[in-house]
Write a structure and sequence with these properties.
- The protein is α+β, with helices and mostly antiparallel strands.
- It contains three helices and two strands.
- It has a single domain, classed as name from scop, CATH 3.40.1690.
Length: 99
């Protein structure tokens, strides 16, 4: 197989933010290839919304595990969190509609 045509391994980053305990979101898991696939599988299994943005992922991959994101990434991560909150709200509405 021609190496020039191979896709780079998939990357995934998991962040956590507890605004009552933390000053900023924290990188809690990250990986490439098989590890990334497993992170995404866990997210799907637990109905965690997945935000796909290669640029943001690459920036977050540079943050050490269990470290708060640096201030220069606040805006990018704010966009991610806004997406997640919207998706969580839509999921909650669907559950209410079923009752």
């Amino acid at each position: 197989m021609d190496n020039a045509r191979q896709k780079p391994p998939q990357e995934a980053v998991a962040i956590r933010y507890d605004r009552d305990r933390e000053n900023a979101p924290r990188v809690v898991a990250k990986g490439k290839g098989y590890v990334a696939e497993q992170l995404l599988a866990i997210a799907r299994r637990h109905a965690v919304p997945v935000y796909q943005n290669q640029t943001v992922t690459q920036l977050l991959m540079a943050v050490e595990l269990d470290r708060e994101i640096p201030p220069e990434l606040y805006q990018a991560v704010a966009n991610v969190l806004a997406y997640v909150y919207r998706m969580d709200g839509r999921a909650a509405e669907k559950v209410k509609a079923r009752r």
